[in-house]
Amino acid sequence: MKIIRVALDVPVATLFDYRCADAGDEDVGSRVLVSFGKKTAVGVIIQVGTTSQLPHSRLKTALRVLRDVPPLSAADLQLLQFASAYYHHPLGPTVMNALPVRLRRAGKLSRQAVTGYALTAAGMAAPPDGLPARAIVKRRLLALFRQRRTLDAAAIKALAATAPAALRQLLALGWVEPWESAPSAALTPETIIAGPALTPEQEDAARGILSGLNGFNPFLLLGVTGSGKTEVYLRAIEAVLAAGRQVLLLVPEIALTPQLETMVRSRFPGFPLVSVHSGLNEGERQQHWLAAQSGAARIVMGTRLAVFTPLPDLGLIVVDEEHDTSYKQAEGLRYSARDLAIVRAQQRKVPIVLGSATPALETYHNAVTKRYRLLGLTQRINAAMPHIECVATRDEKLQDGLSQHLIEAIAARLGRGEQSMLFINRRGYAPVLMCHACGWLSSCHRCSAQLVLHLRDRRLRCHHCGHQAAIPVTCPECGNQELAPLGQGTQRVEAALALRFPRARILRVDRDSTRRRNAWQTMRSQIHAREVDILIGTQMLAKGHDFPHLNLVGVLNADSLLYSTDFRAPERLFALLSQVAGRAGRGDTRGEVLIQTEFPQHPLYTALRELSYAAFACSLLAERKQAGFPPFVYQALLRAEAPRLDTALAVLARAAQLGRDLSRRVTIYDPVPAGMVRLAGRERAQLLVQADSRARLQNFLSAWYEKLAAETSSRARWSLDVDPLEF
Ligand code: ADP
Ligand code: ZN
Ligand code: ZN
Asked: CA nearest 115: which of 328, 299, 376?
């Protein structure tokens, strides 16, 4: 009798054995329907054998092996097994969560939906005025097809509500055709469109990567913003596609940077691309995943979860903006997609390119110590580096958060018809409401955080737990009637600028103003069409957008991030400000960046002014080495949360004791309250464990985790975070 070991989405560290008469070795990696408790569940077969720890009489029989979808390959399972072991997360949930939701169920898979649509030769040749002028959506859709050559259903829907109808008409005209498995034959021989000639620096970098296509070769492409990293990726991608292999391209957030997708699609029209990200619906997720697994999709572009996509012919992985913290998953399997991408490249013996202007120090350290090959791009293409200056605000009375110098600089841009952007890391009107009579501050009763004043919709909002409240008319503590906003948010800066520059066209870009579907897309085209004079925005604006008319960037509250207790704060601030500064002067004029600060002499600002990532990174690395921080030590954080802090601390104290009994070769610190103690009504504490080698830490964690799991107390919820980024 065959016995299968099955991974199920159950939060325990074991697999489950079932009898299964018709299972064979080729079913490893297949989905299987089993009964579990009183229900049925879909799992994945990890092993097929003849033995079990349990007496055979107690084993249930599996209901059915689901062979409608090809099994996960040995390589796919190997990556999932690594992730489960390294992050100490049970294998069952690790495997099941890597599948698209539809494959986690047993229902019949509908597969009528095609993976995407491709422009045909007729569509390419159709005269520009072949469509009536009032068929606006149809024209826009055709234009988009001409730009990108292939589109998936999600991209079509994103264009306009009526775009699917317009698509049907283009299909009827024969200008567009569905593709399911093979690239559109009608588009040959133009399967690869040549890019611009590379600069000598780009040429060197590309040659470096091309020389390493035949094995596991990690590269760090360190290039200042606007230095043309994308062209280097494209050159490597081209070579890999031409060699008949697939490419995995990871990006932090697809929705924020559609240019890259456009670029890749339009450059490789003969090579189907699918996107994998959380914005897809279930059907699209399934479709794209299967297209990747079958090899029909040659390029998979996606966010962190895409790192697990099955790719039988994988030949290259590219991780763009590798330092971005959105590669780290904060819940469940707490993985770093960047780190898993490295592991995957190693397992599959393929090259991997990590690209950034400001790499994570861990990555840079690997390059300095020659574990990764460093490729540098030091020059911007067709543009000078921006001029970065600090505006000392210590002795100046700011007007609504703005210095005189910055106001004049904006006025000068307005006079010349150029765009300015103000960056402020806080949405809403003001970070807090205050009573000047008694010192009361609006704060969230569920979190250790303040309620942010949102004047537009007249609410106080917690940005952590979502709690909201009406704005009180009088002080809840002393009855004083004069409550005042304290500090600046994007809305307040917007209001102040509107008063000062009544004729300027001002656009605010933050999570509140872009909530509507397609809002950000519309805003981007307004910016490109020069219908905006002043942009005000948060982090959203920092990511890789190319705004050619933007010439001035002002940074308003950078200091708030300068003296944080998190040892990674300077690294992050430097990355953020470099990225923000990179927005200035991408066209033909030299951009200017003004950073308002009380500490203009701070080494971080000095390094930024001199645009010297390498020097700054080296000084940070020296500090980290001295202080014993990563990348010179390896860390894991055990977190606990409970209704009361005492409980969480007590659970961690017990865990620390268990750990100390196990090993003296790792450092176990005392439990402490978390940086943000209260969140959504629960109190949180954490326990740091540290070792001087990864292997030593891992050995300890394996033994410790087993003990912890055996003790499961219902008093607190706990979780383990390996290589934590947030403290
Ligand atoms: P990065 O990603 O390094 O910030 P980009 O890849 O966005 O830089 O490139 C900046 C700009 O330079 C883009 O508009 C790109 O099209 C252009 N560019 C890149 N390489 C070349 C080249 N070799 N010749 C001409 N233009 C280029
Ligand atoms: Zn008061
Ligand atoms: Zn809250």
From this structure: 299
**Planar angle of CA 562, 443, 683, nearest 5 degrees:** 85
What's the whole-model pTM score? Answer: 0.90
- The rounded Å distance from CA 227 to ligand 1 centre is 6
CA distance 309 to 99: 8
Between β-strands 39-49 and 3-7, what pairing exists: parallel, antiparallel or unpaired? antiparallel
The percent of the chain in helix, strand and coil, each rounded to the nearest 5, is 35, 25, 40
Task: Please compute the mean of the pLDDT values over residues 215-244 and round it to a whole number.
Answer: 95
Rg (CA), the chain: 27
The answer on pLDDT for 543 being more than 70 is yes
The ligand with the least distance to the CA atom of 464 is 3
pLDDT at 230 over 50: yes
> Which residues have C-beta under 5 Å from ligand 2, the single-atom ion?
435, 437-438, 440, 475, 477-478, 480
**What token pair was written down for 69?**
């979808």
> Span 280-294, mean pLDDT?
91
Dihedral sign, Cα of residue 359, residue 361, residue 363, residue 366: positive
Residue 48, helix vs strand vs coil: strand
C-alpha to C-alpha distances, 685 to 641, 681, 704, nearest whole angstrom: 6, 14, 18
Q: Looking up tokens 């004049």, which residue turns up?
A: 408
Nearest in space to 708 (alpha carbons), one of 642, 664, 651, 663: 651
State the average pLDDT over residues 266-270.
Answer: 85
